[in-house]
Request: fold
Amino acid sequence: ELQQADDVKGIVVVDEIDLHLHARLQYAVLPKLINMFPNVQFVLTTHSPLFILGLQEVLGEDGFGLYDLPSGQQLSAEDFGEFGMAYEAFVDTKRHTDEVKSAVQDAQKPLVFVEGPTDVNYMKRAAALLEFDILLTTIEFREGGGANLKNVWKGLTVHHVHRKKVIVLHDPECGFDETRANVFRRSMYWFENHPIQKGIENLFSRTTLEHARENNPGCIDVIGEHPIQVRGIEQIVPETWSVNEDEKTRLCSWLCQNGTADDFEHFRSTLEMLCKIVEDS
Reply:
C-alpha cells in the first residue's frame, strides 16, 4: 500500500504535454511533479519552450535531458530547429520586457517607445527640423523592440504605477488610442492615400520617397498597378510600395541626412500629439 508520493515508482510517458495546458502551468508543472514524485521518470514530448525554461530555473541545465525524435540525439534547446527559435524568441521577449520596466523605473523624464531604431532617428530628426525643441529636451525616445511593442504596452499596464508618463507609439496603420493611468498607447497619424501603407515611412510624401529611391535604388520595392480576378470579376489593384527590410537603416540614414523640414512635415501632427500628452497635467 502506498503511504506517500515517494513510494510511487515507475515511468510516466506523456505525448504533447503542452496541449490544452495554460502557459503558466507549462512553466511550473514539471518541476513540481518531479519534486512530488522523485522516484518517477517522466518522458514527455512537447513543442513548447516554457517547459524547458521552468526546468532550467529549478533543476539547472544538467538536471534534465532533451532529445530529438525519432533519432534519439541529445540536443540543447538552441539546436532544436523550431523549438530553438521559439525558445530564443521567448527569452529575448522576457529580457526586453525586463529592460523596458527597468528603464521606466529609472526614467528622469517621460519616455516614448517606438518600434525600432530607425523610428527613433526619424522622430528625433523630425523634432529638430520642425522646431519641436521642447520634445528633444523634455522626453526620451526609446526603441520598443519592433513587434515587441505590444508586449511593452502589456508589461507596463499590468500592476505597475509609473512616476513619469510613458507613451507607447505604434506605426501609423495600427490605430491605437487608449490610456491606462500614466501609460498612453497611441499610433502615429496615418495618411490613407499613400503608396506605402505600413510603417513610419507612410509619413513621407510620395515626392520625398521618389527622391530617396533615385538616390538609393533597392530601398523601396514597387509593385505596379495590376488586375486580379475576384469571383470572376476583374479588379484593379493600385500600385503599392514597401520598404525593403534589409535597407531600412540605409533609407533612414539618407532621409535624416538629406531631408528638409518639408520632407518631414507629415510628422508634425504626431509631434503635436506628443507635446499635448506631455504638457497635460
About this structure: Residues 81-106 form the longest helix (26 residues). The radius of gyration is 25 Å. The mean pLDDT is 84. The chain has three domains: 5-83, 93-191+263-279, 200-262.
